[in-house]
Design a protein that fits this description.
By secondary structure, the protein is α/β, with parallel strands linked by helices. It folds into three domains: about 90 residues, Periplasmic binding protein-like II (D-Maltodextrin-Binding Protein, domain 2), CATH 3.40.190.10; about 80 residues, D-Maltodextrin-Binding Protein, domain 2; about 110 residues, Alpha-Beta Plaits. The protein is built from ten helices and 21 strands. Strands 1, 4, 5, 6, 7, 8, 14 and 21 form an eight-stranded mixed β-sheet that branches. The chain has a five-stranded mixed β-sheet with strand order 11-10-12-9-13. Strands 16-19-15-20 form a four-stranded antiparallel β-sheet, with helices on both faces. Strand 2 and strand 3 form a beta hairpin. About 45% of the residues are buried. It is found in: Plastid, Chloroplast stroma. Pathway: Amino-acid biosynthesis; L-phenylalanine biosynthesis; phenylpyruvate from prephenate: step 1/1; Amino-acid biosynthesis; L-phenylalanine biosynthesis; L-phenylalanine from L-arogenate: step 1/1.
């Protein structure tokens, strides 16, 4: 049994290990909530603080992208800032153009977005919230265009990959662009009557396009996990308690199996539930994994392997403090990426 668990954990960085909440937790996105969630830990809980309505959240993509919907779900009254690439999202928060940034890090179909995690490891940013979004891909076209008139489809590479079977059945060529909403913008600006885009129904409504097909994804249950990042820990307001999750990375130069077993035993002995345990090695990463060490002047160090660990509980819990202290005695570098609300809800776009 232990061998099976180890093999499943170490198999590939493309495997997702976060637990998807049950179907009854699914909720549609509601823009009418009049608060902004900014979350941090205090005495084993996470608190909600009301923030100004001009809070700025950077996301990757054009208006109408799934990342923007996720940002608006978490911060309904915020001002969203579109960015061409993920690195630009990070830059926006580091330079002060944005207060928060949102990144897609996992999906039930694709697994972990390793590059986004790597960027997080190299920056002095902390996770302050997570949001799970149900993603349904639709086929969008210019008004009046029918399926029979289409010759190709454009969208984000991940969206195209998620809809492989549907595209094969349609018999259409496909071409990758920067993001789903960017595909819609391209379609509209060039009045492409022989081309469709894969995006959301809300993107169709925003840009005035027709929806020719719903649910193009190969797997009907398609959930993406987003992390909201902050440059500084937000102020804490003493309000109602919420369940807490903590994310950390364990970087090391020693044998991965030994460190993995030690992490498992350290948390298991204290009955701390892990929600994610994943290996990212230099082989999978095409080079060493770079991790910012905030304790040594902000230097970036290279490691042959790191473990991504998510667990239930706060860094203020005594048993969590004891677990981290035990791991820190090993020849490893432990960095807390964030302590934030564990929201079980899966939000939809309808």
């Amino acid at each position: 049994m232990a061998e099976m668990l180890i093999n499943q954990t170490m198999s590939t960085t493309k495997r997702t290990h976060f637990q998807v909440p049950s179907l009854p937790a699914f909720r549609t996105m509601n823009y009418r909530r009049n608060y902004v969630k900014i979350l941090n830990s205090l005495n084993g809980s996470v608190q909600i603080e009301e923030a100004s309505r001009n809070l700025k959240v950077a996301y990757q993509g054009a208006p109408g992208a799934y990342s923007e919907f996720a940002a608006k779900t978490a911060c309904p009254e915020s001002v969203t800032i579109p960015c061409r690439a993920v690195i630009n999202v990070i830059s926006a928060i580091e330079t002060g153009r944005a207060d928060l940034a949102i990144l897609a890090v996992e999906s039930t179909m694709e697994g972990t977005a390793v590059r986004n995690y790597d960027l997080l490891l190299q920056r002095d940013l902390c996770i302050v919230q997570e949001i799970n979004l149900f993603v349904q891909y639709c086929l969008l076209a210019m008004p009046g265009v029918t399926k029979s008139e289409l010759k190709r489809v454009i969208s984000h590479p991940m969206a195209l990959a998620h809809c492989g079977r549907s595209l094969a059945e349609l018999g259409l060529d496909h071409e990758a662009v920067d993001d789903t909403a960017g595909a819609v913008e391209l379609l509209l600006s060039n009045r492409m009557l022989d081309t469709a885009a894969i995006a959301s129904t809300r993107a169709a409504a925003l840009y005035g396009l027709d929806v020719l097909a719903h649910g193009l994804q190969d797997e009907s249950w398609n959930v993406t996990r987003f992390l909201i990042l902050s440059k500084n820990n937000p102020k804490i307001a003493k309000k109602r308690k919420i369940r807490v999750k903590t994310s950390m990375v364990v970087a090391h130069h020693s044998g991965t199996l030994d460190v993995l077993l030690k992490v498992l035993s350290t948390f298991s002995s204290r009955k701390i539930s892990l929600t994610k345990l994943e290996v990212n090695s230099s082989i999978d990463n095409n080079g060493p994994v770079k991790v910012l060490d905030a304790h040594e002047g902000g230097s970036v160090k290279e490691y042959p392997s790191v473990l991504y660990v998510d667990f239930e509980g706060s860094i203020d819990d005594q048993k969590v403090k004891d677990a981290i202290a035990e791991l820190s005695k090993l020849p490893v570098y432990v960095r807390i990426l964030g302590c934030y609300s564990a929201d079980p809800t899966i939000y939809g776009l309808q």
